[in-house]
Amino acid sequence: MGPEIVAAWLKDHAAEAVEVAVIGPARWLASLDTTAEKIAVGIDEFSATPGQPTGEGALVAWAAMERAAAGARLGEFSGVVTGPVSKAELAKIGYGFPGQTEFFAARWGGEPVMAFCGGKLRVALATWHVPLCEVPQLLGPQLLRRTIAAADELCRAEKILAPRIGVCGLNPHAGEGGLIGEEEKDFINPALDHLRGRFPGLSRCEPGDTLFARQLRGEFDVVVALYHDQGLAPLKVIDFDESVNVTLGLPHVRTSPDHGTAFAIAGKALARATSFMNAVRVAQRLIKFRAAR
């Protein structure tokens, strides 16, 4: 589905395409009628069959990531918008990262934070691709500070000058004062209290089962979720077609549509390009925001 949504964006945004470089296999690039710069990578004669992932396709995707990362590092690109990739096929060819977030962190340095915006919700994740049993041990002051700083940047890039940041509790009902878990009382809330001097709109731990509804009602500008599904379950119910994956905390901007490869509908003209379109817009906004700082 990735090639389809990129091609759709290029067709509908011809004026913007002149400022874009498209990276992909040579035969696919040749099929695009666009003013964008074309950068060929991977196997010269590669041609994908929609809906049928292969190791060759994974090699092309990996090569495209490497080219994009190098271009940003060298100042050739202001930011990177990636398409969806098959993690299963990449793993088969030796790609040693759980996802693209970890790949770009390895290539660029920095401390990545996975965040989402573009629809009705803004969400930053303190942890993501780790087993749930490891989450409490990871939630130290430095991780919380990094995630909250990223949530603050996400809002400020959208001209929210005094962000109200809601933080989900780890346990049901945010621990109920220690009755249903003591992590909030023992170390998460004290860390948040310390950070509030820098981030005045920061909450203490709030029950995760109501916090997203409170954001929708306008009480908070962004929510910090402490683990992957806590943040992404409500996000994908509400914003599945619009949400954008943003990697913050790195020296360069990287965004991506917040959906997978959708091989079942690839090549059938059913894919919606809304999330990719939003990913480009968010990247442009973040690039402009960082340049102005």
Distance between the termini: 36 Å
Specify the CATH homologous superfamily of the largest domain. Answer: Isopropylmalate Dehydrogenase
Helical residue percent?
40-55%
Average pLDDT level: 91
Largest sheet: 8 strands, mixed
Task: Spell out the helices and strands N to C.
Answer: HHEHEHEHHEEHHEHEHEHEEH
- CATH names the topology of the largest domain as Isopropylmalate Dehydrogenase
Q: Total number of β-strand segments?
A: 10
Cα radius of gyration in angstroms: 20 Å
Oligomer: single chain
Structural class given helices, strands, pairing? Answer: alpha/beta
Proportion in β-strands: 5-15%
> Regions with pLDDT < 50 over 5+ consecutive residues?
none
Return the CATH architecture of the largest domain: 3-Layer(aba) Sandwich
Highest-level CATH class of the largest domain: Alpha Beta
Give the neighbour order of strands across the main sheet: 3-10-9-4-5-8-6-7
Task: Please specify the SSE layout and strand pairing.
Layout: H1 2-12, H2 14-17, E1 21-24, H3 26-30, E2 37-40, H4 55-73, E3 79-81, H5 87-92, H6 100-108, E4 113-117, E5 123-125, H7 135-138, H8 141-156, E6 165-168, H9 183-195, E7 202-206, H10 208-216, E8 222-225, H11 228-239, E9 244-248, E10 253-257, H12 274-292
Parallel strand pairs: 1-2, 3-10, 5-8, 6-7, 6-8
Antiparallel strand pairs: 4-5, 4-9, 9-10
Helix pairs in contact: 4-6
